[in-house]
Amino acid sequence: MATVSLSNREQSTPHITVIVPAYNEQQAIVATLTQIASQLQQLSPHWDIVVVDDGSRDETADRVRALGPEHRVTLVRFSRNFGKEYAISAGLQQARGQVTICMDADGQHSSSLVADMLEKWRGGYDMVYAVRQDRHVESRFKRWGSRLFYRAISMGGQIDIPRDAGDFRLMDRCVVKALLSLPERNRFMKGMYAWVGYRSIGIPYTPLPRSHGESTFSKLRLMQLAWTGITSFSVIPLRLASAVGGLLALLAFAYGIVVVVDKLFLNESVPGWPTVVASIMFFSGVQLLFIGILGEYLARVYDEVKGRPSYIVAEVFSHQEAQTALLT
Ligand code: UDP
Ligand code: MG
């Protein structure tokens, strides 16, 4: 598809592709897609929706397949649950729009914001991300956790991830292409959006309440995601380990001198066991911790070296393709 130059954007009605990752969303998916479709219909004659069913165990895929052609849906079904990051990657692979927008299936991302995003794109921005405004209603764990996370990532100094911005965003074709060109298998989308760069801007939004059920991101899963983010986009844990290791070595050296001086000049009696035992425990603890951190990075390298695909697509379905298949 031809790219639209900046000066032509103002008048253009681009082809819009909306990507919707869905995992066990049978109760919400049809309503969400209907809403998105009616919103898109008002914005441009050219649009389509890509739903990535991330290995749902419920009827999500069946309900999407049962939708009529007016929803213009392409369904990409994974062979199992690979996670939202991979569902988005698969959606980007499938997207053919001049602009691509990523939205949740649970109805939390209000489709009325799409018009504002498109306005910003017309104004020359290649990436428009929605920034959550409601952080104060979240649990203390989430608020402090996210603060700690952004602090740790920014200490790495490689990228600047905008705070409280998630996957709800509009991307120009050039951004999508750039994201697809990143070969890594440990995909941490928040970091990758920031890493590719391009002219970006945030617009504020307040997420709507989830239309059913609960968030699939438990505390444990959030911590895992944060750790993937930190180890994929920063070497700060390694630097911290080196700094603490260096400091401890210096202290140990100084203490060694004290012991020698004691022995040679002051002829002090043999010090007690508790000091020895305590310091052995402490130093071996620190060593094990840092070996663990090294191991985490090694595990990332191992994952990449294996060269497995990031996800497996079991099926791609769309009315258009079904029709073409009938004709041939
Ligand atoms: N999701 C997914 N794969 C998963 C978990 C979630 O594709 O393994 C989708 C989910 O269906 C939803 C979006 O990612 O469309 C956000 O998930 P959720 O609402 O559970 O998280 P939160 O709103 O707390 O970010
Ligand atoms: Mg949600």
From TrEMBL:
Pfam families: Glycos_transf_2 (PF00535). Residues 17-178 form the Glycosyltransferase 2-like domain. SUPFAM superfamilies: Nucleotide-diphospho-sugar transferases (SSF53448). The keyword Plastid does not apply. It is a multi-pass membrane protein. The chain crosses the membrane at residues 240-261, 273-299. GO terms for molecular function: glycosyltransferase activity. Keywords: Glycosyltransferase, Membrane, Transferase, Transmembrane, Transmembrane helix. This is Glycosyltransferase. It comes from Pseudomethylobacillus aquaticus. The lineage of its organism: Bacteria, Pseudomonadati, Pseudomonadota, Betaproteobacteria, Nitrosomonadales.
